[in-house]
């Protein structure tokens, strides 16, 4: 298969997303075409370092760059003030300057943390995303959102800082656990649900075989990235249309917070539950047919993903507490909670006109 390129056209902040097989082994040439003779430093986590760091460092070494690495703990809890401080201080100790490059090698956690560290170090250092999870390849590595979590909510602290390059090597996805792959798929399906019914139609047929079919997997990653790039180009800092990319996230982020950002609920699993809840709420409000949420939940079930709150293990706060957690969502404006709802598959929109009784009823039904 050929390597595909999606251009994220943002004027002086434009960059390429390269998608295909074998990109990790080619990363030295790809990255150093940007870096030249400048310093390169890598931020990663323990799990990813064991699987991929030696190959990346060897690829860079083959092009004449010795790139040191800081290896952080794996998991959502790493998106914290303490680990951000550790990363920034380490980069300063490595004498990383504005024109040097920071490489984020990992999933969404490392990409968000490393991007935020690069954004605030010396008021802005260039960085490259090498996403190693499906979720990061189709979502968090593209678009320039960086940040960490607060105890009061997910991604509440951060900055917009676009990468200089994204290298999405689909070969590395073969090292993911089945659960991590499925969780990433939650974000793939989201693109069809929010704005492309024909893509969702294709996913209903191809989704169960993606992990075994590199050509189909590359098509899914490429289409997802292209959709996100188009939205980001039109609304870089989420003043309007870009909020659609948060379909399912108002619910999902609240559920992640309620589970302590633990492995009880992975981000993509929360998105799957959240997307289903968004369609259930839409149907209850008469915005879409009753068949639409059934189709959404059936597809997530076919992919081995949860679609109901009742499928999340362990105790959860009551509905009032979940709604309070939603109130910390970044999309809140003037104290009003905004939801991404839908008039059908591929027809999402943003609204704050949601009746509290309808919201409580949908949450209660999802617990059964």
Automatic annotation (TrEMBL):
Amino acids binding NAD(+): 108-112, 132-133, 145, 154
Signal peptide interval: none
Residues bound to Zn(2+): 187, 249, 267
Pfam families to which the protein is assigned, alphabetical: DHQ_synthase, DHQS_C
A Gene Ontology BP annotation from the UniProt entry: amino acid biosynthetic process
Record's keyword terms, sorted: Amino-acid biosynthesis, Aromatic amino acid biosynthesis, Cobalt, Cytoplasm, Lyase, Membrane, Metal-binding, NAD, Nucleotide-binding, Transmembrane, Transmembrane helix, Zinc
EC class: lyase
A GO term, aspect molecular function: nucleotide binding
Cofactor binding note from Swiss-Prot or TrEMBL: Binds 1 divalent metal cation per subunit. Can use either Co(2+) or Zn(2+).
This protein's name: 3-dehydroquinate synthase
Species name: Paracoccus yeei
Gene responsible for this protein: aroB
């Amino acid at each position: 298969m050929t390597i595909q390129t999606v251009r994220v056209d943002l004027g002086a902040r434009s960059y390429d997303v390269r998608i295909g097989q074998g990109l990790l082994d080619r990363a030295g040439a790809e990255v150093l075409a940007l870096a030249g003779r400048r310093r390169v430093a890598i931020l990663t986590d323990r799990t990813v370092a064991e699987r991929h760091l030696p190959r990346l460092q060897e690829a860079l070494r083959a092009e004449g760059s010795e790139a040191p690495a800081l290896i952080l703990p794996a998991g959502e809890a790493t998106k914290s003030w303490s680990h951000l401080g550790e990363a920034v201080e380490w980069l300063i100790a490595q004498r990383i300057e504005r024109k040097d490059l920071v490489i984020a090698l990992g999933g969404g956690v490392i990409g968000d943390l490393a991007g935020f560290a690069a954004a605030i170090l010396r008021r802005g250092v260039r960085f490259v995303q090498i996403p190693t999870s499906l979720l990061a390849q189709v979502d968090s590595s593209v678009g320039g959102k960086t940040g960490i979590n607060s105890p009061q909510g997910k991604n509440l602290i951060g900055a917009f800082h676009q990468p200089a390059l994204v290298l999405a090597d689909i070969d590395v996805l073969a090292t993911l656990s089945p659960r991590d792959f499925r969780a990433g798929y939650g974000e793939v399906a989201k693109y069809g649900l929010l704005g492309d019914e024909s893509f969702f139609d294709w996913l209903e047929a191809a989704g169960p075989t993606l992990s075994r079919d590199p050509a189909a997997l590359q098509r899914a990653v490429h289409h997802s990235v292209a959709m996100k790039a188009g939205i980001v180009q039109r609304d870089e800092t989420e003043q309007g249309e870009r909020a659609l990319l948060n379909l399912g996230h108002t619910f999902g982020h609240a559920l992640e917070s309620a589970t302590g950002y633990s492995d009880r609920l992975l981000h993509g699993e929360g998105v799957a539950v959240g997307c289903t809840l968004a369609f259930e709420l839409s149907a209850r409000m008469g915005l879409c047919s009753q068949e639409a949420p059934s189709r959404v939940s059936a597809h997530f079930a076919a992919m081995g993903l949860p679609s109901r709150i009742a499928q999340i293990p362990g105790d959860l706060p009551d509905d009032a507490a979940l709604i309070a957690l939603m109130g910390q969502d970044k999309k809140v404006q003037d104290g009003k909670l905004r939801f991404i709802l839908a008039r059908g598959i591929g027809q999402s929109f943003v609204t704050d006109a949601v009746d509290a009784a309808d919201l409580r009823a949908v949450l209660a039904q999802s617990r059964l």
